[in-house]
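Lab notebook, bench 4. The sequencing result for the construct came back, and we need a structural model before the next group meeting so we can plan mutations. Quick request posted to the team channel:

Model the 3D structure of this chain.
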Amino acid sequence: MHTHSFGSLENYPALLLNADYQPLSYFPLSLLPWNEAIKAIFRDSVTVVSEYERVVSSPSLAMKLPSVIALKEYVTPARKPAFTRFNVYLRDEWRCQYCGQDHRTNELTFDHVIPRSKGGRTSWDNIVAACRPCNTKKGSDMPSKCGMFPIRKAAEPTIYDLQKNGRKFPPNFLHESWSDFLYWDSELDQD
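Done. Here's the predicted structure in token form:
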């Protein structure tokens, strides 16, 4: 396919919505690369909701790249979030649960509140995000021994909790056509 316009095609992802026009996930945001979005259109598995001005063409067809697409069949979201390092950081909003400072992903570790050496498990209710200095300072001590208690009690989040937190961390690129689908629940300005 030939392209009309400037810039890399990688700069034209499509926001993927469920059949109810809600994003499949907020963080990471449910995006499809431009070529996967076009394949989904030709498979007739999505509806085009909005388009970029950018046009791609082949010898027999020219079309605008989709900026927002919605699945034609509803996908039931997972009931429970996966227990992953990323989801722990998302639950804790990339904030060390001991010092309260915000950090980048590569500056965080996860800490067993009750150390494994003292019978602590690797589970939602015993793992928190911690910066390296706090994790080192706490070591394998019990919170009561070192005086380091998590700001928030470690607990399993709901999918809704993670989506709510994900809305606070938008990706670097947000196309204007996505705003109606991502920020419908944001507070409105009052006169």
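The CA atoms of residues 95 and 163 lie 17 Å apart.
Will bring this to the meeting.
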